[in-house]
Amino acid sequence: MNEYSLYKSELLHDKYYPKVISYYFKQWKGFEMPYHSHNEIEIMYVIEGKCVVETATETVPMKKGDLILLDSNIAHRLVVDNENPCRMLNLEFFFTNKENVGFSPSFKEIVRTNGMLSQFLSKAYPYIVLKDSSDIYHILKSLVLELDERSLENKLMIQLLFSQLFIKIGRLAIEYENQNSYQVNLYIKQILSFLHQNYDCEIQVKDIANVVNLHPVYLHRIFKAEMGYTVMEYLTSLRIKKAKMLLAHTEIPIIEISEYVGINSRQYFSTLFKKHTGKTPGDHRNTLNK
Asked: What domain count does the chain have?
């Protein structure tokens, strides 16, 4: 294969086996890696400390017990500050159908006998962050020890450990997805409740993030994915809806309506209102009165 993606269909049609290119333990401190990508699939496991893995679309904070699985050719970089050093275990590998591994099961055989792994692969995540229960770390550590030996017997053990690793990752990923889906729904409800109770105040995404205890980038991502528009787009729509209600059912002067819906600039409020309704606030009230 010219590409080594974990999700290539060829992996399920022929006998392929993982082959490690590099592996290492490393203590990072005050380090900013340049963005890079490579053909190999990579696992980064945080043993101690904290770090951030940045991709083209997301900033992922990681701490002890977290691991990220990056598919091939995904641009990423590692960032570690001076005050919080990070010790990591890194493993890079690809798949080959030329490995002589005796009676070890091939990747397709592992997938066909494990429903959760098959379900995980169908998602084709470019990368996924998981929280380990220590099982994966023990497998990775054993794998590294076997890789250091490089004997024929070790080749078989390496493949068996990889089999365990894939099964554990598939199981963790699906369990996390199910749990995360429930948690995301709770977060969305909290966000909507906050917006409906505070639309008359000046609100920024960071304010909402503090209330629901989420990173602003993650909050933005899950809200857009679930609702179909950003938090600020929803807030603007809500404010216009409330403004229309006030124009229709109260005698509040038009010049004061913007303050009632949390928009400090009357001119900006009028521009937004016309953009969303096709009319100025005054024209909207006049139409209703007629």
From this structure: 2
Collect all residues with Cβ–Cβ distance below 8 Å to 73 and sequence separation of at least 6: 3, 5, 37, 38, 39
This prediction's pTM: 0.65
Contact assessment for residue 38 and residue 73, using Cβ atoms and an 8 Å cutoff: yes
Please, what's the b/e burial string for 80-115 (b: 16 or more CB within 10 A of its CB; e: otherwise)? Answer: bbeeebbbbbbbbbbbeeebebeebbbbeebbeebe
Under 8 Å between Cβ of 193 and 227: no
221: tokens are 């991502």
Q: Which of 118, 115, 165, 173 is nearest to 137 (CA)?
A: 165
193: pLDDT confidence band, cut at 50, 70 and 90? Answer: very high
Q: Residue 36: inside a domain, yes or no?
A: yes
Structure tokens that stand for 146 in this block: 């076997």
Q: What is the distance between the alpha carbons of residues 119 and 213, in angstroms, rounded to a whole number?
A: 30
The token pair at 68 is 């990220």
Could you tell me if residue 236 is left (phi over 0), alpha (psi between -120 and 50 degrees) or otherwise beta? Answer: alpha
Among 60, 77, 64, residue whose Cα is nearest residue 215: 60
Q: What is the dihedral of CA 227, 233, 234, 239, to 10 degrees?
A: -170
Q: Which of 137, 160, 181 is the last residue of a domain?
A: 181
Report the chain's terminal Cα–Cα distance, integer Å: 71
> Are 85 and 151 members of one domain?
yes
What is the chain's mean pLDDT, rounded?
Answer: 90
Of the candidates 103, 99, 120, the one whose C-alpha atom is nearest the C-alpha of residue 167 is 120
**Angle, vertex CA 93, rays to CA 150 and CA 98, nearest 5:** 70
Residue type, 81: D
